[in-house]
From TrEMBL:
Gene Ontology BP term (one): negative regulation of DNA-templated transcription
Gene name tied to this protein: nrdR
Domain of life: Bacteria
Cofactor(s) the protein needs: Zn(2+)
GO molecular function, one term: zinc ion binding
Function recorded in the entry: Negatively regulates transcription of bacterial ribonucleotide reductase nrd genes and operons by binding to NrdR-boxes.
InterPro entries (UniProt xref): ATP-cone_dom, NrdR-like_N, RNR_NrdR-like
Lineage of source species: Bacteria, Bacillati, Bacillota, Clostridia, Eubacteriales
Zn finger spans (unnamed): 3-34
Key words of the record: ATP-binding, DNA-binding, Metal-binding, Nucleotide-binding, Repressor, Transcription, Transcription regulation, Zinc, Zinc-finger
Entry similarity comment: Belongs to the NrdR family.
Protein name (record): Transcriptional repressor NrdR
Note accompanying the cofactor annotation: Binds 1 zinc ion.
Amino acid sequence: MRCIFCDFFDTKVVDSRSADDGKAIRRRRECSKCGKRFTTYEKVENLPLIIVKKDGRREMFEPTKILNGLIKACEKRPVALQDLEKVCAEIERDLNNKMDREIDSSLIGELVMEKLKILDEVSYVRFASVYREFKDINTFINEIELLIQKQK
């Protein structure tokens, strides 16, 4: 690491500690030539995820879109925002752990429904009705019957 003051190439680490809730490392460095100290941060570089939409368009992954969808599905339900943020973070982690950098939007929808089913069944049915484009009341009834069967 080059010194930011004198541009000398040899610096030593005098202190390291965790930063940003364990997502980064903060290092205090000292230049071997001028003796001045400075701070650097080291964190994992995340490669961007590309979402492939149903119509073939591609766009950058935006976790806020998932969170907004969860909030709409859970409107007027006893689900804490903290729980929705946790679900969103879990989905983002699951997607980042995949080997592919391009993800079908259908996979995201299925992950959201899987998590919502555990969190709040009414919110799950709301989300599923929009995501799966329920056409009539019979589709709702079928989905609810599936939920009831899985509970037994």
